[in-house]
Structure formats: C-alpha cells, structure tokens
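Replying to the earlier thread about multi-chain prediction with a worked example.

Input:
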Amino acid sequence: MSGDRLRLALPVLSLVVLLGAVFYLQPRAMSYFGLNLLFNLAIPVALATISQMMIIMVNDIDLSIGTFVSFCACVTATFVHDTPVIGYMILAAAILAYALLGALIQLRGLPAIVVTLGMSFVWGGLAVLILPSPGGASPEWLKTLMSLKTPLVPIAVVAPLVIALAVHFLIKRSWVGVILQGVGGNDRAMERAGWSLVRLRASAYGLAGLFGVLAGMSLVGLTTAADANIALRYTLLSIAGVILGGGEFVGGRISPFGAVIGALTLTLAASFLSFLRLSPDWQIGAQGAILILVLAVRLVFIRKGAVA
Amino acid sequence: MQTISGAPDAPVVALDAAHMSFGPVQALRAASIEIKAGECVGLVGHNGAGKSTLANVINGRLTPTEGAVQYRVSDPAHKNSENAQASGVRSVFQELSLCPNLTVLENLRIPYRNMPRKGWRKIASQKMSDALDLVFPGHGIRPRATVGDLSIAERQMVEIAIAFADRDSEPSLVILDEPTSSLDAAIAQQLLDHIKRYCSEGGAVLFISHMMGEIFDVSTRIVIMKDGQIVDDNPAQAFTRQSIVDAMGHVAPDDDAQGSARSERELGPVLVSSAIGLNARRGEIVGLAGLAGHGQAEALAQIFFDHSSVWKSGKRPEVVFVAGDRARDGVMPLWSILRNLSLTTLPEFSKRWMVDRPAESGLVQKWKDRIGIRTNNLLNPILSLSGGNQQKVLFARALASSAPLVVMDDPMRGVDIGTKKEVYQMIQNEAAKGRSFLWYSTETDEILECDRVFVFRAGEIAAELVGDEISEENILHASFEMQEAVK
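Result:
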C-alpha cells in the first residue's frame, strides 16, 4: 500500500471503530435521526478544518481560525440577516484580509504562528463589538439549507463528504492545487521555476478565509443565533482534524478527505464520551487521549512503512 | 512547442568577462566562455574554484556584478533568468529541487509554466514517461508515484528527465552539476550515453563532475577553473588526466616553514578512531580533505557523537566542536561576547549550581588577550564583532575547555587571512601541548598545516597522506576519481 493510502486508511479506521463503539453503547443512534444528532456540528467543524488545511498546506499554522469563525458567525447573525449587501461585503473583506495576511507573511518573512495569534485578538475583538451579548438570527435560506432533509443519509453526513469531494478536486486534482501544494513541498523550487510565492501564499490564505467564512455561516444556520465566543474551540479542533486526517505540519502533505474525516472523528469523539457518561470535566482530556492514541498508531505504521 | 529564435550557429550562451563578487569575496573573475550548440563542456575545478557560481551565472540565477551574459533570446528588458528560461537553459543541481509531496507528473507541472490547462495530467504523464524513457530506458518509475516514496537515485533520475523533457520550449543547454553522484554505474552510463546523443543532435550540455572518467567520456571541450578564474579551455583531446590535475592545482605555497614545524612534535597513542578508518593520536592535527560534501561533515559528527552523551554533559567533555557555519551551529546571537565564550566551560568553572562569575570573567579576559579578540568591552553583543572575531570567540570557547579532542568543521569560512594565520599558530601551540585536532577544511592551505590527512571521496576515505605526502597534487589526485568510470 502506498504512503498516501496508508495515511487515509488510519483516520477512516478510527472513525469506523469509534462509530462502532457508539452504536454498541447506544443502538438507537443507528438511525437517520440518530446520525443527524451525532454529527450535528460536523459541517462547520469540517469547513474550519479545511480552512486550517489550506494554511498547513503552505507550512504555516493558523491560530486565529476559532475567533475568525466566531467573527463570521456574528456577522452572519447580524449584518447578513439585517442588511445582506453590507453583510456579504464584510465577509468578502474578511477573505481579502486573510489573503493580504498571507502576502504579508511571505513578503516580510514573518512567522505565521505569531501573526495569526495576533489576528485572533483582532477577530475576537471585532466579534464582541458586533455582538456584545449572544443573539442575532440566522438568515432564512441558511436555516433551510442546514436543516435540509436529504434522502437516506442525513445532511450532517452528506455535506461533509460533498465538501471533501469538492476540495479534493480543487487541491488534489486541479493544477492550481498542485502548485499550491508545491509551496509546502519545496518553496525554493517553486521560486526557481518562476512562480510568485507572494501570490501563491496569498491564494492559500484567501482560500482559508473563504472556508472560514463558510464555517461561520453554516454554524449560524445550525444554531440560528451567534455569540462572540461560539467557535473558540475550533482552532485546536481544526489543527487536530488536519493532523488526524493524515496531514503533516510541514512538507505540504495534506488530504482533504482525511481532514474532513478527522473533523468527523473529533465530533464523534465528543458524542462518544457523553454516551460513556463521562463527566464533562474529563471530556476534553479524554478527547486529547483519543487523539494521542490515533497519532501514536499512525507513527508506528509510518515507521514500519519506511523500514519496509 | 515554440522553436528557439536566433541564428542556429550563434552560441547558446556567451559570457564576456563576467565578474561575480559576494561582498569582499570574488567568486568569479573575468570569466569568458561561449557554449555552442552540439557541445558538451566538461567543467572541473577544486572546492571554491567557482564552478557553481559560473553555473548559476549561466542559468541566470545570479546576475554578474560586472560583464555581460548573452543568450540566444536576449531581451534587455527582461532579467537574465527570464532570458535564460526563454532560451531553453535548464539546470539540475545537487540539492534536489523536486516537491516530495507531489507525484512525478505533478513535478513536471512546476517548471512547465504554461502547460495547456485542459487534460494537463494526461499531457504531463505522457511527457514525463517520454522523457524518462528517452534518458533512462527501462527505468520503472511510474509518473503517478509520489516523489517522496522514490529512492534518492530515482528522484535524481526524475529531476534529470524533467530537465531534458520537452516543455513549452525545447532545452538548448542543460547544466548538470554532479548528476551521477547518487546514480549507480549502469544508470550513470545511460545518462552519459544520452548526453552524447543529445549533443550530437544539436543540444548543449555543461557537465560538472569530479569523475575524470565521465568527464573524458562525454566532453568535447574541457574547462578548468581555479580561484574563480577559467584557467584552461580547450578541446578534450588536448588533456590527459594528469594535465587536468596539474592545471587545477595551486602554485606552491610561498613559505615552506610549516613542514618543519610539523615534524618536531612527539605524537602520543591513538586517541579516537571511527568505523571508516578515521583516527587521531594525542597531539596530532588530522586534516579531512576532499571535495565538499563527500562525507567529511558526517565523519566528524560521528566522532563527536560517539564521544559525547545525548543525556548528560560531563564536567570534563571528551570532545569539543568548532562550527564553520557560525550562524547555524555557533554563536548565540543575542548573548554577549563573554557569555558566548564561556558557554562550553561553564560546568568546569562553576560551583554547585551557580556560575562562578569572577572565574568566568577571568577566563574570558585571559582568552581575549591570548587569541586577540578585538573589542573594548566583553559585554558587547557578539554580533558587534566582525566575522573573523566571532570565529575567534568560537575557537576560544572550544580551546578554553579541557577537552583533549577538538573537532573543527571548516572553521575558517569567511575569515580574513590575518586571523587565519593567528589561529593556525594557536592550533600548532595547542597541539604541542598534547591536544588533538580533527580539522575538516575546504582550503588547501589549511590542510597543509596538518600532520596527517584523510582524503574523502563519496563518503569513504580515498587516501591517507602523512608528512611530505601532504600536497595539493596528492589531495587532488585522491579527491578526483582517477580510474575509469567502470566500477
């Protein structure tokens, strides 16, 4: 089995094992409605993970994605609901801001981890300014879209797979995606071949901004209201999702399907721990333990693969 | 595919008295060379002779500080690199320039800037297979394989094939820098055959190699470089292996006082030895010579790690290290001169957990005077010193310890000649006191300071020279493959 397939096999396997465990604990979850509940929040998490993946693809890391998604959710629940034109303009400007950050990081050789950490306070502050107390409302069309009743399999499962497929074509199949991955693989080679790293990094960050906006919007569609702190956990969840899905922090090795499956696994892990009746105090720790376990297994497999 | 415009008999590239200097270092001096279609130019020279600089000027990555470069397509409005690209100048360098996370065919997409967008995977796959089949028949590399999963030799083959591949323009000149370094003999022969075929069909190749057999096999013309200058440029028939080595060598060192200094010392028992046969006796200065990147740094690292522990550092280290790459392995850029100097010796001069500050500054003051660090305040940041003085601090850091063995990884890089002489003297004095040195250097003058020299080639010791055998000529003989390429 080639390295790439092995990378994808492990997240799929861990998802299946976790799903089996949930069904064993709670057989009633094995239904249309049950699945929808289990993966309820998977769509925004999957989108945020894809956003993080775009950044990790170019060897950077985004510590602001949680507050950025919160900010986008606040904009969606207020401006997009009340004055759609202004609302969409704000979201478009946010994407542009992400692209500019990418260009800045490349131009000045700044560490992305510091820039995005700083930006996380900017986004968080803007979110509080827009929505000082929880509230707002979801645009009607978004609510309808997120509660769509798809046949056979609930939307909470279908949508992440559709997202993964779309991103797979964009990143893994199209030439643009190949060039973007090249930045993570060997940026000096890209420069020598005459590609503009500033433009490429800006594009990757712009894509990350786009998926961050989509994550915020879908989150409002599900919860029908927003809060300035609604998605703070997404920063760590998205990083964990990318790595769980077979990605690497450096080298441009990423997998859209893996990232989405990683996001699903992390969402499911939370449900699984509730089914175990584990006290919420322990849940984050237990989630971390699951993550470490899966990564340890992957390390063992990859080492073996490298020796063989 | 667009054809290259311009007269067919015009040279692919012509350098007219090109100078290239990096700060005070003159890497290329008045280099004039023309490469015409159908020629295979073999380029040879010792470390630092300027081969890579010449190659980088030809492929347009470096713009010469003086002089002109003329390509077939020379649009003065464009940069040299763009003209080189438009003229079909391509290069393969030793450090791989592939993206390991992408597949073989995707890697062709990167230099192929304006590939048709529709069905590009199919086109790339076809062109990649064609190129690999052309250069390395029977290669067995699938275009859809991920580069990271390939062996080093296969990656090198892919990289070479991409350079010869038919892209938006045809290749007119391919620069190959040590292309066979990671290929086995049979594959290397395929490459040499391809180069000959390619040149007979009107292509041009600039072939840099240290394998004399290969140079004579493919070259129609041989260019020899020394000290940034082209010293010989003649048809291959005009040379013999011996005449090439003679032309590469320096003039004889102007003072031969070193030889006498060398023989006077008494050498003790063997202090260290490594699996590949490298060893040093007490009080001996052992040189590691050969072309850069042939395993000397690895051999030094091996000795260093064999004699030091990852887990605990003893009060009296067995071995200390002087880095050549100051910025990476040497200085603590934010610390003062004093702190930088006392770093290795802190455990030796400290009581319990506390640093003995008076002892520390006493030690540093002593070394400042002995080694002549030019500063009026040792508390100034290390970066306030010139490069040569920074290097002196690193020497002092190592010599101040009681370690019986000092490992030096090309420590004189970018150091002025005056400082060098001072440090040579100090090394001789320390050796006389019974300390041993393992000294990797790319400069012949430094190797001539040693009592015994190991010449490295391809990760192995090619020769061990003692006493009067240590000469530039013998080192060159051993560094360059003198036998036929058939192994």
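Chain A touches chain B through 22 residues (CB under 8 Å).

Feel free to reuse this layout for your own posts.
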